[in-house]
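Please produce the structure of this protein holding heme C.
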Amino acid sequence: MLRLIYYLALAAAPAAAQTQDARFFDERVAPIIERHCLGCHNEELKNANISFVDRESLLHGGTRGPAIIPGNPARSLLIAALRHEGELQMPPGPPLSKKDISVVTAWIKRGAVWGTRLHKETTPQK
Ligand code: HEC
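Below is the modeled complex.
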């Protein structure tokens, strides 16, 4: 019996981590994207041919190629843009707060797990 419980716990662990990461996205990351990025990168406008409404769009990326490499923020174009490290600086104008940048960085490091808050039907906030 104990052994059964042990195996059940093992099987449940990855699912729990996934849920936790999805919640991290919905509560911490999605609000940043909604507020600062979605106005220009949505299904209608697609600035630089990239929309931020789902994970696939970011993995596929825009005219420059993939915007995020899950697990590897240092090689993710999106992070370089947020940090104003290169020619591409996002959002245009003043950079995000250090805290917001670290939240997005942590999210990519943890595998860039998506939640339910942003999807194809999400419309940008006016
Ligand atoms: C005011 C409109 C606007 C906002 C807000 C904005 N972007 Fe952009 N974004 C653009 C434009 C325009 C380009 C194309 C720039 C270029 O090609 O030089 C672009 C390009 C990009 C690219 C490169 C895509 C590619 O493959 O060429 C990334 C990544 C990106 N933005 C991320 C973001 C992120 C992350 C945010 C939010 C923090 C954001 N953008 C907010 C207008 C915007």
